[in-house]
Amino acid sequence: MRRALSVVIGLVVMVALWEGYKAVGNPDGTVLFGTRVLPRADDLSMPHVWDMLSRFGRPELTGGRPVWQAVLSATLFTLGITALGFVAGAVVGLVLAIAMQRFRIVERGLLPYVILSQTVPLVALAPLIAGWSGNLSFGAYPWQDWMTVAVISAYLSFFPVAVGMLRGLQSPHVSGVELMRSYAAGWWRTLVKLRLPASLPYLFPALRLAGAAAVVGAVVGEISTGTRGGIGRLILEYSREATSDPAKVYTAMVGAALLGLVVAGLVSLLELPLMRHRRRVTVVTM
Amino acid sequence: MTAVSVQAVSQIFNQGHTDEVTALSDVDLTVAPGEFVSLIGPSGCGKSTLLRLIADLITPTSGTVEVNGKPAEKARLDQEYGIAFQQAGLFEWRTVQRNVELPLELRGQSRAERRSRTAEMLELVGLTDFARHYPAQLSGGMQQRVAIARALAVHPPLLLMDEPFGALDEMTRERLQTELLAICAKTGTSTIFVTHSISEAVFLSNRVVVMSPRPGRITATADIDLPSPRDEAVRQSPAFFDAVTTVRKALRAAA
Fold first, then answer.
1. ∠B182-B185-B191 over CA atoms, to 5°?
2. What pTM did the predictor assign?
3. Above 70 in pLDDT, residue A286?
4. In this complex, is the C-beta atom of B52 within 8 Å of any C-beta atom belonging to chain A?
5. Spatial CA neighbour of B84 closest among A158, A178, A12
6. Which residues pair with residue A36 across a beta bridge?
7. What is the average per-residue pLDDT within A210-228?
8. Is the confidence at residue A283, as pLDDT, over 60?
9. What residues of chain B score a pLDDT lower than 70?
10. What is the mean predicted confidence (pLDDT) over A236-252?
11. pLDDT tens for residues A165-198?
C-alpha cells in the first residue's frame, strides 16, 4: 500500500517537474555564452503530458490502429527478446563467475577480457553479429534478426552478473570455507551449500543492472540492426515524425520505460522468496 | 587409544620465500579421551595453527598428526571432530535449526534423523525456542551456542575450539564456560580449546598447555587439579587462583 503510494507520488512529482519547467522555461532554451544550458520548453521539444497521454488513444496513421496498441505490441515483442537475452546473459555470467571462482588461472586470464568486452562499442558489434545471419542456421531454422538482437542483449547483460557473482562467490569468510572443509565437503558441495547462498546478496543487484542492460541492448540492437516489430524500431519510426507529431515519439519512450520496469519487477519477484532472512532483523537479546 | 596424538610436528609457512615463517617447531601433544586441554600463549605462538593441523585444515611441513588413532586427513573425512571458531560463522540464510543440521545434511542423514538430532542439540545448549530464528536475530552469545551445537551435532569424539568466547563479554563468557563443561561431561567429548585468557583456560581444563612464539613451541604444561563439577565456588577457591598463578608464571617464563 505504502509502496503503491510512493510510486504515485513519484509519478506526480515527475509530471510536475516536466510541466513546471514548461511553464517557466524559455521556449527557445536558455543560452549562456553561446552554449544552450537549458533545453527548449516549446511544445515541439517538450509536449504537454496530457498531449502524450491523449496521443496513445489516437490512431498511429489516419485510419490505422491506435498508438497504444502499436506501442503495447512492440513492447511485448521486445520484452520477449529482452527476456531471452537476459536469461542467456545471466546464465553465461553465472557460469563464467563459477569458472573464475573455481580456477584462479581462469580468473586471471578471463577477467580482463570480460571487462574489455564491455568497451567494444555496441554499434560496431551489431553489424558483426547481424553478419552471422547469412552463415548460421539451427537445422532448418535460419538465423533471424531477432536472434541478433537477443545476442546483443545477452552480451550486455552477462557482464554485471559475471562480475557481481564472482564477488559474491568469493564473499564467504574463511571460517565458513574451513568449516565446510572440516565437514569433508568438496568443491561442489561447498559451492552449493555455502558459496551460492552467500552470493545472493551480490547476485540480485547484479541482476538488476543486467536487466537494465538487457533492455538497452535490445532497444539499441533493434535500432542498429533494423529489426522490425520492436519498441526500438518504433522509437526510430516515431522520431522521424517528431516535427509534425512531437507527442508520438514520447509514447514509444513510455513503452521502453515500461519495459525496463517490467524487467526490474521480475527480478524483484525472484528476490522475494530467496532473501527472506534479510527482512526479519529484530535481534533477540538474552 | 588417544584422542589426539601430535608427534614432532613443525609448520613452516612460505618455505623458501623471503617471508618464510616458522609457526610451529617440533611440537608433541597427546590428549586422552574425555580430556579437556587448553592451548594458551601470546599472539603468534602458533596455537591456532596447531588446532588447524589437528583439524587437517592445513598439512604439517613435517611430523604426524593422529586423531582417534587415524591420520588427520582420514579423521577429517570421517568427521571425527567438530570445530568452532571465534566468529560463530553461522550461515545467515539458514535458520538456527538448519545451521545445526548442516553437518548432518552433508553426512546424508535422513530428514527425521536430522530433526531429532538437532532438537537434542538445541536442548543441550538451551536454544530450543529459537530453532526457527535466523542468526542475525540472535545475540553474540546465542550465536556461539548455536555454533557449539553445530560442532557437536554429529556426536564427534573430539571438539576443537578456536577462541570461541573471545568476542563475548565477561558475563556471557563465564556462563558459556560452565555450559560447555556440562556439555562435554554429558557427551564425554575430548576438547582442545585455544584461548588468550588464563582464567578461562584454568577454569575449563584438565591440562593447560603453554606455548611461546618465534618459533611456536610448547614450553610448559600445567595439570589443573580442581574439583568437578566446576562451578562458581571453584572460581572463588584458593586452588583456582594458585593454578592461575602457576599458568601465569609459565607464560612469563616462556616470553
1. 100
2. 0.80
3. no
4. yes
5. A178
6. A31
7. 87
8. no
9. 255
10. 85
11. 999 999 998 888 989 998 888 899 999 999 999 9
- Is residue A123 over pLDDT 80? no
Q: Annotate B139-189 with DSSP letters as a single string.
A: -HHHHHHHHHHHHHTT--SEEEEESTTTTS-HHHHHHHHHHHHHHHHHHT-
**Overall size of chain B counted in residues:** 255
A280 vs B96: CA distance, rounded Å: 14
Nearest residue in B to A193, CA atom: B102
Contact B42, B212 (CB under 8 A): yes
Has residue A131 got a pLDDT over 90?
A: no
Query: Phi and psi for A26 in degrees, rounded to 5?
Result: -70, 125
User: Which of B114, B128, B137, B138 has the most A C-beta neighbours within 10 Å, making it the best mutation to test the interface with A?
Assistant: B137
CB of B103 within 8 Å of a chain A CB? The answer is yes
ipTM: 0.83
Q: Which of A175, A189, A285 sits opposite B139 (nearest CB)?
A: A285
Alpha-carbon distance A188 to nearest alpha carbon in chain B (angstroms): 12
Asked if B102 is an interface residue toward chain A (Cβ–Cβ < 8 A), one would say yes
Using a CB–CB cutoff of 8 Å, tell me whether B128 touches chain A: no
If DSSP codes are grouped into helix, strand and coil, which group holds residue A48? coil
Task: Specify whether the backbone of B162 is left (phi greater than 0), alpha (psi in -120 to 50) or beta.
Answer: beta
A151-165 confidence digits (pLDDT tens): 889 998 999 999 999
Between chains, do A182 and B142 touch, taking CB under 8 Å as contact? Answer: no
Question: Within 13 A of A58's CA, how many CA atoms are on the CB side?
Answer: 12
Residue B21 in 3-state DSSP? Answer: strand
CA angle B250–B252–B255, rounded 5-degree value = 110
Interface A–B counts its CB contacts (< 8 A) at 73
Quickly state the pLDDT bin for A280 (edges 50, 70, 90): low
